[in-house]
Design a protein that fits this description.
By secondary structure, this protein is mainly alpha-helical. The chain has one domain.
Length: 155
């Protein structure tokens, strides 16, 4: 059990540091690069996904911090959930807390990945990718467990 916690902390520190260093680079240096399919282009997101709720910009960091804290308290009370989903939960916390730190540091989330091949997509960052991977892993695991339970109940 303690191995999962230590491994999660190591993963958290490494990914959080990488994400913040890259965001610092985009926010403070000219790292913009135009590509044929995807560009690296600095943008600040003052809302949440696709800039929704941007009108709450000043309050979002506190709302999101409260949500992360509530999730952390839930995991303290339900340790089995953490042990079952330790990797995706770690990714969720890395992505969420890194984006929240951006709000405190830069006033908005630092985004820099801009997909524009075939259609223009929202500009996003590595934290957003980690959050989406985490959600996909949780859904995959839930579906896998559901299928397994259905097979057992039919036997």
């Amino acid at each position: 059990m303690k191995k999962k916690v230590v491994l999660s902390l190591i993963i958290f520190v490494v990914l959080f540091t990488i994400d913040q260093v890259v965001k610092f680079g985009f926010a403070n240096f000219d790292w913009n690069v135009e590509g044929p399919y995807m560009s690296l282009e600095l943008a600040y997101n003052y809302g949440v996904a696709f800039s929704m709720f941007a009108f709450l910009a000043e309050y979002l960091k506190f709302i999101q911090l409260a949500m992360v804290l509530a999730g952390f308290i839930y995991l303290l009370k339900n340790k089995d959930v953490f042990y079952e989903y330790s990797f995706p939960i770690t990714l969720l916390f890395v992505g969420g807390l890194s984006n929240i730190l951006d709000r405190f540091t830069y006033g908005g989330v630092v985004d820099f990945l801009y997909w524009h091949y075939g259609f223009n997509f929202a500009i996003f960052n590595f934290s957003d990718v980690m959050i989406n991977i985490a959600v996909a892993l949780i859904i995959y695991k839930q579906i896998k467990e559901w299928i397994s339970e259905r097979k057992k109940s039919k036997s």
